Amino acid sequence: MKQHPLCTDTEQAANVLDLTVPAELKQEWAALQTRRHFLGRTGKVLGWAAMASLLGNRNLRGDTRAPGYGQTAAQAGEPLGLPHFAPKAKRAIYLFMSGGPSQVDLWDYKPNLAAQYDKDMPDSVRGSQQLTGMTTGQARFPVAPSHWAFKRYGQTGTWVSDLLPYTGRMADDLTIIKSTNTEAINHEPAIMLMNTGNMNAGKPCLGSWLAYGLGSMNDNLPTFMVLQTKLNTKENNQPVSSRLWSSGFLSSEYAGVGLRSVGDPVLYLTDPNGVDREVRRKMLDAVNEINRETYAELGDPETNARIAQYEMAYRMQASVPELADLSKEPKSTWDLYGPDAKQPGTFAYNCLMARRLAERGVRFTQVYKRGWDMHDNVTGMLPLLCQEIDRGCYALITDLKQRGLLDDTLVVWAGEFGRTVYSQGGLTADNYGRDHHPRCYTTWMAGGGVRPGITYGETDDYSYNVVKDPVTVRDFNATILHCLGIDHNKLSYKFQGLDQKLTGPVPASVVPGLLA
Amino acid sequence: MASLGLSALLLSLPWLIKLDGHPHADWQQFLGRFHPLAVHIPIGLLVLVPLLEIAGAFRPVLREAAGFVLGLALASCLLALALGFLLAHGSGDAGAGVMRHLWGGIVLTIVVLLCVLARPWWSTQAELNVYPVFLVCMMIALLWTAHQGGSLTHGSNYLTEYMPASLKGWTGLGSQPSSATASFYVQHIYPVLDANCVGCHGETQAKGGLRMDSYDLLMKGGQDGPVIVAGNAAKSILFQRITLPTDHKQFMPAEGKPPLRGEEIAWIKAWIEQGASPSIAALAGVSIRAESPEPPIEPVGDYSALMPEIQQMDHTQGAKLKQVSAKPSDGLVLFTVDAAGSFGDAQLAQFQKFAPYIVEAELGRTAVTDASFDTLKQFTHLRALHLEETRITGSGLAKLGTLSQLGYLNLSGTQVTAALVAPLSSMKNLRQVYLYNTPAQPASAAGEAQSKERTTP
Question: What's the pLDDT tens digit per position in A122-174?
């Protein structure tokens, strides 16, 4: 076997006897390498190997997930035994509100706060919590009641802010969680925690776990797709990047594939002039042949992932144009999603695209909407943001429902944390700012597996602490996995000596109160 | 003489040391908990005895062993009985099931003792041949006692829970408490208590003297008095216990069993506060979604022999058959989205072989036509059928009428008409029919097409 340039394997690298070590140590080393040792060890190795094959492939091989070096179970044609039980949802759509939407202004109705306007929030509410550097120096923490009124919607009488009139109309279909809470107070760790179950980068995200665990329903499209919403330059846009849809230590073929919000949905997917499909096929066959040789020589699993990705790109050359062609959508679609949906890259367009991906068997679609990080000028910015997403969310749920897809599609709406009830910076009669708030924030789910028309969890009078039925990020993710037929404790992958899970090592539990 | 004395002692044991339903010393429970372990020794030995005696007719040496085994069995019977008594006494169990099991154990031990006494006569060919009779009695007592014990640990319906319905009806086990009296207690309170509490507070083990398996017993309460104070949930012990912090020593359900769900607690609270009546039909402030319960999932047959072919279909047809879950009896899902345009009636017919194992068929956007209904009607376990955006016109839809499990039918974006869909309303389990963007779509409020219609009456 040829040595890989990056190989650091000691057996390949250098002979011990060539190293600069004391002569007596070399002698001892040589003495240990007797024929008896060799025979003894060989015998044991053969014995263990025989036993491993007798006991089946699992226990002694150590890595329970990889049936052969560099091969995932799926590649080897060996089922992972998933879903663990009959799932309610076959696919999921995750509308991610990056930046931290204000639960105080959108969902967590606290009518009694009006009387507290500009009064100091009692210290007992905040307790010993450490704040961010942005407000920790503030002399006082004046309560800023929401600028907007709330209305009751639907048969359930759910309170929803006037900022979300469309969303309110589907309140009876939503499972609203007021008690979501996180451990992270800043964007980067919090958004990583929501997506990968860990504040540090390098772990696979929810979508990758699903792609790895459940596999594809449609070989012509990626199992996990990411749609980014066009930027609104007025907003305070915290960056999102591909680390949020990274496959971490799982094979890179499980990483999310992004569709661009402007221009071609996927760059360089169209063949250049003069290259037809047949030429492309021949070229790929040749490249694959070379890659397979490389894999045989070096055994790097990433080479296989590369082959798989080339093939996927080839199939996407046919499937993506069909996906992105909205000309056959009936007029009722545009009436539902509104005029924004005709413009690629808007949130409404992405919602429509998410519905089309769901119809085409894509397991997991994540739509990112940035700009919710409103440290100041809430009354200026929040209506813009809500106006951007409100109709899209409503249209997506309604459309899935009328097409019979909501029964087996789980839709999730969440940000990485909430916002403080007290004002960051100055509080005036018609404006205020809100800092990051991890202790409680509102999220919602809808569709396959969750119970519609309920509000779960309660917060205190200041929308500051959870007082009933807390849902941690771990529980939140465990519940999502449950809806898709996965026991979060069983979906694991051996890496760095640990059985890694989306929900991490701290015990997590599915929230039964959310389930249908 | 000694054996007579021992029998008398055993018989009077329950009177000598009364099982008063109160827990006693911890050491008793500690030792007593070895009872389920020790109890299997006499069971094994006792079953062996008649076998050895019968086999001894052919190989005399085995008959010699039978005497030794019988003696050993008696000793282990006494040990198991002692441990069992300690368990019952120590944990304060005195339910009817425990008492039956205890009496069974006593009778069994005495019968074994009689066997030991009668065996020497029998082996010396004396005319008094009672030993075989005692052996038969012993086996009956053993079966009965073991069954009582099993009912204590696994629950009394453990054996019959999954009995086929037809057999249940035949044996008369199927009679459930009549739900004709649709009171709130019968419909919502009793099922919660039955699922979470009756295991320990029921006929088999009345812990704390409390039984909750009927309304009267529940209201009677336990050794600490009534557990329900009608009209006052906060003063009702039952409500107090289920709302303690889950790690509290007195929290119920005990022993790490899952707590009641929030809404169940809310029902109990409302029910107590509004009088804890057995007959009240509805409670103010409590609305429970009336749902037709989903039909139980009928397991599909064994298709393991077809697995290689199932995997092969993926390569040849472009359509996939995937298992619903790791449990094979949940059936298979047919995915065709890969093949979409090229998947027509002929391709569907190829799957006829797997028809009884397919519970869900995703045929949306494929080239199937009305002719496919002839194939589909053979998918006897089909629960969900996707035909959206296909060239289906609806003629032949009635053929699906034989699919008794079908609960979901998606015809969105097809040309089906209301007249052709109408016959489907007679299908009992069909709960969701999607007709969005079809001529059959019911007219509704502007822009908000609600195509989801309930076809159940």
Answer: 999 998 888 888 888 898 999 999 999 999 898 888 899 999 999 999 999 99
**Best mean pLDDT range from A68-72, B20-24, B288-292, B436-440:** B436-440
Confidence of residue A10 (pLDDT cuts 50, 70, 90): low
Residue A77 maps to a domain: no
pLDDT reported for residue A5: 56
Phi and psi (nearest 5°) for A415? -115, -170
Split into its structural domains, chain A has a count of 1
* Chain B partners within 8 Å of A404 (Cβ): 386, 388, 408, 410, 412, 432, 434, 436, 451-452
- What pairs with residue A409 in β-bridges? A91
Domain holding A171, by residue range, is: 91-110+146-421+485-514
pLDDT class for B168, splitting at 50, 70, 90? low
Is the pTM of the predicted complex or chain greater than 0.90? Answer: no
pLDDT mean over A318-333: 90
- Residue B164: the pLDDT is 73
How close B231 comes to chain A (CA, Å)? 25
Residue A407, min C-alpha distance to chain B (Å): 9
Confidence check: pLDDT of B157 > 50: yes
Question: How much is the mean pLDDT over chain A?
Answer: 88
pLDDT score of B173 more than 60: no
| Residues constituting chain B | 457
Closest-CA distance, B89 to chain A, in angstroms, reads 37
**More reliable by pLDDT, B154 or B451:** B154
Q: Does A67 touch chain B (CB under 8 A)?
A: no
Radius of gyration for chain B, computed over Cα atoms and rounded to the nearest angstrom: 31
Report CB contact under 8 Å: B408, A485.
no
A 78-97 residues with CB < 8 A to B: 79, 81-87
Report d(CA B206, CA B98) in Å as an integer: 9
Within-domain flag for A318: yes
To test the contact with chain B by mutation, choose from A91, A394, A403 the residue with the greatest count of B C-beta atoms within 10 A, namely A403
Residue B304 corresponds to which amino acid? S
* pLDDT per position as a tens digit, A210-235: 999 998 888 889 999 999 998 877 77
Partners of residue B330 in chain A, C-beta under 8 Å: 85-86
Q: How far is CA A47 from CA A35, A42, A44, in A?
A: 18, 8, 5
Contacts of B325 in chain A (CB under 8 A): 82-87, 485
Residue A184 lies in a domain: yes
The verdict on A30 touching B (C-beta cutoff 8 Å) is no
Q: Are A173 and A397 in contact (CB under 8 A)?
A: yes
Given a cut of 80, is residue A393 above it in pLDDT? Answer: yes
From the list A454, A169, A346, the residue with the least C-alpha distance to B263 is A454
ipTM metric: 0.81
Token look-up 């704390």 returns: B208
For residue B385, give Cα distances in angstroms to A450, A498, B333, B397: 22, 42, 10, 12
Interface residue A156 vs chain B (CB under 8 A): no
What is the C-alpha separation between A363 and B284, in angstroms, rounded? 43
Residues in chain B closer than 8 A to A220 (CB atoms): 337-338
**So what's the pLDDT on residue A65?**
42
Sort strands A174-181 and A257-259 into parallel, antiparallel or unpaired.
unpaired
Q: Which of A504, A498, A490, A502 is nearest to A63 (CA)?
A: A498
**Domain presence at residue A36:** no
* Beta-strand relationship, A224-228 and A257-259: parallel
Contact B324 A83 (CB under 8 A): yes
Report the percentage of chain B scoring pLDDT > 90. Answer: 25
Q: Is A404 in Cβ contact with B388 (below 8 Å)?
A: yes
Assess A398–B contact: CB distance below 8 Å, yes or no. yes
In chain A, residues with a C-beta closer than 8 Å to the C-beta of B323 are 79
